[in-house]
């Protein structure tokens, strides 16, 4: 297994343990923390998506010029 697979599997195991603990009555993570975490990840994801899907960087500017030369933009 590669490192990414091991990380995904570890997160899955932690999530399953957390779910089981919640089912039996132990709240391991507060709802406030979860909401804060979702807000931070959402913000980071939106910034990343905006950067990757627009022609903001040097690589993006080159791609835009290529598309314009080919008549596709």
Q: If you had to describe this structure to a student in words, what would you say it looks like?
A:
With 73 residues, the protein is mostly helical. It has three helices and no strands. The termini are far apart. The model has no long low-confidence stretch (mean pLDDT 89).
Low-confidence segments: none
- Assign a percent range to the helix content: over 70%
Q: Report the strand count.
A: 0
**Largest sheet geometry:** none
Give the strand content.
under 5%
Mean pLDDT: 89
Please give the count of helices.
Answer: 3
Radius of gyration: 20 Å
**Gap from first CA to last CA:** 42 Å
Overall geometry comes to elongated
Structural class, from secondary structure content? Answer: mainly alpha
| Assembly form of the protein | single chain
Topology as a string of helices (H) and strands (E): HHH
Salient structural properties:
73 residues, mainly alpha, 3 helices, 0% strand
Characterize this entry briefly.
The chain has 73 residues and is an all-alpha fold. It is built from 3 helices and no strands.
What is the strand and helix layout of this fold?
Blueprint: H1 3-23, H2 31-52, H3 58-69
């Amino acid at each position: 297994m590669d490192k990414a697979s091991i990380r995904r599997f570890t997160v899955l195991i932690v999530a399953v343990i957390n779910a089981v603990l919640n089912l039996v009555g132990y709240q391991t993570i507060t709802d406030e923390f979860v909401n804060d975490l979702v807000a931070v990840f959402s913000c980071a994801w939106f910034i990343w998506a905006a950067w990757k899907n627009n022609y903001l960087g040097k690589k993006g500017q080159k791609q835009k010029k290529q598309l314009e030369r080919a008549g596709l933009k």
